[in-house]
Amino acid sequence: MYHTWMRFFTPGPAHHRLGLACLGVGLQYGALPTVGPRTLDHHVAVVISTGTGWYLASDGRRTTVTAPALLWLTPGVPHHYAPDPATGWDEGFVDFTGPATATYTELGYIEPDRPVVPLSDATGPRGVVARIARAARRDNPLLEVETGAAVHELLVALRRARADLAPDGDLVLKALARDAFKPMSVADHAARHGMTAAELRTAVRRGAGCSPKDYLLGIRLGRAKELLAATELPVAAVARRVGYDDPAYFSRLFTRRVGMAPVRFRAQQGRTVPGGWSNQVPDPDDPPRIEPSYAP
User: Fold this and answer.
1) Lowest mean pLDDT among 22-31, 150-159, 228-237
2) By CB neighbour count within 10 A (0-12 exposed, 13-18 middle, 19+ buried), where does 245 fall?
């Protein structure tokens, strides 16, 4: 015996241009029927929270599926799977498509060559699937936009839940972030961790979906923007604070990546306030408050 609930949607052209469009959502449990062999023209994320089963690839390789796990069903790739009839499984699935899937694949969030992905915990992804299901009311005027936005959230939750990756980045990524503002090259960072530059590139690509240079650059430029917006430090001082001894090089790099020079960014975003810059991270349970000031 099994139980199944599902809804399917037909987003319009404008919704597809948002990047990701949700095509359907389902919640099922029990000894579900075998799926396939079949081939789809869109992506499906199948989140399995309890139970066991199997997945058969197009080359005949059979993989045991043990919850918590994710099945990636990707366009044009034949697939065939089912839960163990003796135990069944509990699954939630989301069908989606859109041009953003190519970028998520490039970043490693979607893995066409890895159809079975062990998860450390299915709670986060399953919660997103449940929210999509709650939004799937036929009288919901925000249906397509709400569910499409949730697919982005689902991909992040699935990436965070992967059993082979730490949810907030491995130790190498944390160390790179900690040392990002030091005037060190990628080779210097690799040596500090006893790695070759190639090994560091592999580790960062796997964990963050980009090169070490881009990972460090994103952190540096983010901090530079904050200093430009919230302090009156000269651009040369900002450059030194984020790891660049040559302010002219920093300005060229900032302009190329941000699309405007540091002085122009400051002119647009500057909000210098008494008290200056703070590194303190706000507590979600105690957000910062702006006290009103009254002229005498």
Assistant:
1) 228-237
2) exposed
